[in-house]
């Protein structure tokens, strides 16, 4: 195998290999899938999802002696099938607002596995959370007050238990657009507000069971979690003293990063991140003589990113003064991450991926934005119009942030499991683009 293919294959789902000169995932030839389901095509490989989940579970069991749990952050990618996978595996599902709650409900996720987040929950979001969620994570005091009002006027017997989201005042190292823990972030409660929220919730008869924080997404060094844990545990020592309250659950969020490009390899494994968090939590509780809470992690990207692959067809090859362009049939409408965060991807041709690279290549979409470039300056072999290229690590924050820009129809999504490729989301049709529109009156 040549160096380019050998370096990029480990970014694809487990069991990705080159057979008969074509990229395969298990027994599925990617060109045959593209032929059957069209392009752009997104696929999720179940065995890769299972493997990432097993890494989290094993690490938690090995590293943390008390109880632990996992929530899948639905914002990374949510569909009925994905929610079913989450439910079947006994994870909680984190839903942001009524929309994601209703997807989980459509997948029959039960109340006790449904957790609701959101920095600015609308009345509709709060009502949906009251109706369907087991846990509601309170972001700010105004939200808590609205929630208390809703609970007072509701004739329901059962309400979600509450976790309070602390803003620890320090973020993890990542793109500034995905940092959430810093002092001036829009997310969460300051330590003082946390104390006030706890008192207000308790005097309204609401059950607060958790302390939550999340410092950002796609970080590779867990160090800032240690300082946030210190702050959180100091706060808990104080609430134990003043209110007799300690959380049953402590959730330091998600956010562990994922390698997207061969230059990101090797990447520190999930186990190291979990060990770091567990050790600091154990030590911090020991130092303050606090009981060990249930440790709950909330990953999105590191569970699903590698399981996903995007397959595009090359519509045209163009040469400009200094660049070779591959113009694909998808781009920023299905994957806005490069335009939003300058996220860096890699790719392989689906046929003859072992051809040696000849040139730095710019892979761009068909949309009317110069920022619609998926990959810049990637060494690639000569590619002809009509060929397919596969972009690995496409499972997180791509389709969930996709759009209909320039009339793009959002892609079909398939699920690979055992010997079957199942369509889990159909491609949008032309009619879907104007189905919600109404003409002006005459
Ligand atoms: C509250 C919360 N939890 C978990 C996550 C998941 O992050 P990631 O997908 O990077 O693991 C996010 C994403 O930003 C989040 O906002």
Kindly list the characteristics that best describe this protein.
single chain, 442 residues, Lyase, Ornithine Decarboxylase, Chain A, domain 1, 2 domains, 13 helices, 32% helix, globular
Description:
This protein has 442 residues and is an alpha/beta fold. It has 13 helices and 20 strands. Strand 16 and strand 17 form a beta hairpin. The longest helix is centred in the middle third of the chain and has 21 residues. 46% of the residues are buried. The protein binds pyridoxal-5'-phosphate. The site of pyridoxal-5'-phosphate (PLP) has 18 residues, from helix 11. Pyridoxal-5'-phosphate binds next to helix 11.
- What is the molecular shape? globular
Low-confidence stretches: none
Q: Strand tally, please? A: 20
Q: What is the count of distinct domains?
A: 2
Instruction: Report the helical percentage.
Output: 25-40%
Q: Given the helix and strand composition, which structural class is it?
A: alpha/beta
Write out the distinct hetero groups bound to the structure: pyridoxal-5'-phosphate
Radius of gyration, in angstroms, nearest whole number:
23 Å
Termini separation comes to: 65 Å
Question: Beta fraction of the residues?
Answer: 15-25%
The overall average pLDDT, rounded, is 96
